[in-house]
Amino acid sequence: MPAMPPPDLSSVRVCVFDAYGTLFDVASAARHLQTDLGDAWAPLSEIWRTKQLQYTWLRSLMGRYADFHQVTREALAYAMESVGVSDPALADRLMDLYERLDAYPEVPDVLRALKDGGKQTAILSNGSPGMLRSAVEAAGLGALLDDQLSVDTLQVYKPHPDVYALATSRFGVAPEEVAFFSSNGWDAAGAASFGFRVVWVNRFDQGVERLPARPEVELTDLRGVPALFGL
Fold first, then answer.
1. Is 18 a catalytic residue?
2. Omega before residue 159 within 30° of 0, cis
3. Three-state DSSP string of 154-171
4. Do 104 and 24 form a contact (C-beta atoms < 8 A)?
5. Of 16, 32, 202, 180, whose CA–CA distance to 101 is shortest?
6. For 186-196, what is each residue's pLDDT tens digit?
7. Which letter does DSSP use for residue 148 in this model?
8. Separation between Cα atoms, residue 123 and residue 23, nearest integer Å
9. Choice among 8, 18, 205, 221 that is catalytic
10. Which domains does the chain have, with CATH numbers?
11. pTM for the complete prediction?
């Protein structure tokens, strides 16, 4: 993405974060079981994540919602079959690890800086409420977040605009008063289309999505977030 001038984010009152891939490392579940999975851990993790996202979009289009825990388990079953691993006990261990994924190392300090700077903070995620609670508690982030918003209340997944409206309704703000942070280019595009001020946390050096709206800022991780607000 070409270099962009620093945006004026002075109107932002609420900082909203995607969870999976943005705050939490989705590869960490399989990485922790490298000894059991061997060389299959990385392709399994990649297929798992890809199929997980595909299932959220497809279920939304079909009108056949299932919560993110079920979608994640079904995506894992597909991924394990794809890499030739058949072990129900191992699948249970992977799902348990997914409930308490590693947070990226900079996350606590960034959230603390935003809170100290007077911003409200929240998660807006496809994750089911129980999954989000488990991940937040395991990472010790509970005191640094004002809320954890889940699509489960709507039973439709991102990037449906009603999902992004959960944040404006919860905090009583206009879309332009929300800064939204996501590592997923499609999610960043969806949030920008809704009217959020969007920062794309491009952790994986992905190409720019050819979608109707684009983020204002691109970062490689969250460390640069406080500086966007002069903190």
1. yes
2. yes
3. CCCCCCCHHHHHHHHHHH
4. yes
5. 32
6. 999 999 999 99
7. E
8. 9
9. 18
10. 14-25+101-228 (3.40.50.1000), 28-98 (1.10.150.240)
11. 0.95
